[in-house]
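Quick one from the shared queue. A colleague (R.T.) flagged Thioredoxin reductase as missing a structural entry in our internal table.

Convert sequence to structure tokens.
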Amino acid sequence: MLDCLVIGGGPAGLTAAIYLARFHLSVAVIDSGQSRAALIPLTRNHAGFPDGIAGVDLLDRMRAQARLYGVQIEHDTVVALDHNADGFVARHAPGTLAGRTVLLATGVVNRRPEMIDDASHDRALATGRLRYCPICDGYEVSDKMVAVLGTGDRGCHEALFLRGYTKSITLVAPGPDHDLSAEQSRSLAQAGIALAGPVTAIRLAHAGIVLDLPEGPALFDSLYPALGSDIRSELAGRLGADCSGEGCLMVDAHQRTSVPGLYAAGDVVLGLDQISHAMGEGGVAATTIRNDLAAKAPLRR
């Protein structure tokens, strides 16, 4: 029986694992290998890396640091999580792992545009022609030609946010028509944001990314899909943990879910989806787990 089982090996889960191991607690991480951080070609937003760092490199460093303190890292997917009087049992392909507590750091999955094939999508992402986080890399599109794929609240908000980086913004409808309120249309018009769509295909060009629109192909430097994401909160939801309307896990100020002994950190929690924020929540969660375990039985060397 581990002191804590961490499900998810992104920045939140690995930060928590490092803290927990340094608290002299037994901890294992089960990582499906789907952290969104691994998709980041180079982040210049993360403090301490003035020249930027690739997401895979950051995760490699964090895994190496966790292993220094004896953290067991399993590369697999948890298919079920059960709760009993002793704690929790996670089921994955090789068998089961049991923990007195569980930290869920399972993150979210970006919804990808349907109009681009997987190979082109990955090449576009690696070269900055496709971007998913304007908070992370909006600076990199300063004064460039940018398209936002989306509509409604999500598309309108992202287009207006990016207007702080460049005056050349086009909001492109992913479906037949835009779904915008009169107020949203006014806000976009006042900001000088053009409307277009629907887009029928997305292609890579040598100098950027091309969207096929009714009026013809349009070339942009970068495209931001504003299509939302799917939250990986199913394991907690089956245990009855409170979730937001979109499926984000609800936690208290110390990362506790509504299920005793179950904690959550990172993008799976309602809040700011940023590496630094996820790492902070991982540290808070780990410290809370340590203190909650100590309240049940003293932790002494």
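The first strand starts at residue 2 and ends at 7.
Residues 2-109+228-296 form a domain with the FAD/NAD(P)-binding domain fold (CATH 3.50.50.60).
Added to the table.
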